[in-house]
Specification:
By secondary structure, the chain is mainly alpha-helical. It is 72% helix and 0% strand.
Amino acid sequence: MSEAAVLPRPVVRKLPGGVWIVPPTALLALLFFYPLALIARQAFLDDSGMANAAEFFRVLHARFFLNALLNTVTISVAATAGCLIVGLVLGLILAFVPFPGSSFVARLIDTFIALPTFLVTLAFTFLYGSAGMLNSGLMEVFSLPTPPVDFLYSTWGVVLAEVTVYTPFILRPLLAAFSLVDRGQIEAASVLGARPFRIVRQVILPAAVPALIAGGSLCLLLTVNEFGIVLFIGAKGVITLPLLIYGKAIQESAYQVACIIALVNIALSLGLFGLYRLAAGRLGA
């Protein structure tokens, strides 16, 4: 009986592990770093392609830029604070005050995440606008010559719309954090005579702080870059950085000025994103 021939096994060459970083790096370079480099380059060149670094510093000291930066920070901080307050109140009610349909209400609030921001703004216009339902009803009942409610076309109208849109980004991590709270501690504190406010302050809130930080930093990031709500409301004198970039680039064709403001907006956004990732990492997300 002849011996069976032993065939050599084919040699499988494995690619070095570092090779797999090339495709995502190339994709990031094409979709992110290259456009960012073009924006940075255009920020230091005038319309004729000549170097003009002085314009960069002139824009940073210009009143229209400083006003837009102040409006952006004011609106984003106020909207984030409103989201934190409303989200915390809603989270406490949905998590610790049992009532029929609480899960349905929580899912209904979640649907705001899927809605475009202009839709909420449009609904606010129908409700609180100059010709909206509220003003029309008040003018008809009290025979008023002018609409009595005019907050919508102001900074506070923008803040209210952003609070409505972005509160679910606070509520979701809060409900997840509240689900981990030991109900036995709450019952023990209640038996020992602690009032509801003290239970919330000493038992519930410490578990909610990481979720509030993560959700708040995400809301701050989103509101800083919000464009649709500010544009759609059209509040007089309320110009934010995204709206200023749009105006300079599209309406005035001042591309160098638009790129300078865009660089500032990008730096601000990346800083806030780093804050969000730090907070999310401590939360365990």
